[in-house]
Amino acid sequence: MLKYLNNLLLPFRSCFSRRATFEWFVVIVVGFMLRSDHLGVTSIIRDLSLNSRCYETLIHFFRSSAWSPESLRQTWLQIVRRSAPLLVVQDRVVLVGDGMKQAKEGRRMPGVKKLHQESENVSKGAYIFGHLFGAIGILVGDSRKWFCLPLFIHLQDGVKTILSWKKSASEGETPSHVVQMIEQGFEAAKGFGQALLLLDRYFLSVPALERLKACHLASEARMHLVTKAKSNAVAYERPSAKKKPGRGRPPKKGPAVKLKELFVTRAADFQTATVRLYDQEKTVQFLSLDLLWGQGLYQELRFVLVVYEGRYSILVSTDLTLPATDIIPLYGYRFKIESMFREMKQVTHAFGYRFWSKSMPKLNRFLKKEEANPLEAVTNDQDRQRIQKTIQAIEGFVMCQCIAMGLLQLVALRFSDRTPKHLFRYLRTPSHATPSEATVAAYLRKSIFRMFAQNPHLSITGQ
After folding, report:
1. Residue 459 CB: number of other CB atoms within 10 A?
2. Structure confidence by residue, pLDDT tens digits, 152-181
3. Does this model's pTM top 0.85?
4. Which of 121, 149, 278, 458 has its CA 20 to 30 A from that of 187?
């Protein structure tokens, strides 16, 4: 198991200009996997029994110029492509994307802004101050259990002014969160050739489809979306082939179709099929239609109306060749990214960073829309560089956490059959033959610490 982890971490050596920096990276990733409490860098020093003088070195690591989060992302994509058991549907890997909001109270932490969060949980406030991330994961595993392995997570909102410091005027403004998710998914798809991207219904929009079309024109990689439509969605039939009488351009769309009404008006046309949904064989009724959608865009999409246990859903795919019996179970896998967020928060505490900068203006909680952004007053080059390095530290911290979580998942899939069950921690109701990320982390913590206790001359970096 340790040899397997070593082989997965060795390719990252090319991402670092100095060997010492690479060794600190290994210490940090292993520390994220093994630490028993969630107090930032302090936890790594405690659980790995490092000298207290290492604290400043670990903090400096995330702001170091000897590496970049982008190089880690590219190398991690290659490792996943080579080592992970990927879910493949019609020769395409399955990506999952979603946004994630993390509350942060730092007054001098860049990227913090007021965010609205929609939730049925009464313990969550309607508005929070924090960071908005966009995450892309990939489905890995087998028929026993599927994981959403995190590929990378970007900070997407609240950093528009900071990013504009690096851009020229010709590059234009920073796109919206929805468009950035499409761009992130397509960047991941380039590493695998062809992909399907599962998204929540929030991301079905005209700008997203236009951006996807532009990405296809600029690259040979191909990515299609599988998402969900709102219940009040309206599509259009194809325009009549019959020439319109009189003058004027030919129509771009035909009669409007209220999709929700089709559950009643075309109930007799629904088909019945048995699909694997949420790890169980389920019987569903569905109706598949190819219709035009998007005001002014009128792109042809495949709509799948689903009736499952008395509930109605409208699924959408940009791939007109994808059968409905594939679209339905595919969208059922979208929730895997929510499980990934939960494990990253509770097991490795991936968003427990506390990076800030004195050069950052204090957060104004009562800033109005018409008032100027305080960051616009930062004109000193050194202050701007410090703020940019703080952003790099945040994204670098989260990227290392993605790698740590992915390694736990790969170990769970690789060694679930080889490790005696009694060595794993007690679970009252184990639901899968494959252990969870938390179980693997607990097992590694015990086995590695026992090995170091028996062999004091060993170290994580091999020195």
Report:
1. 12
2. 999 988 888 888 888 654 455 778 999 999
3. yes
4. 278
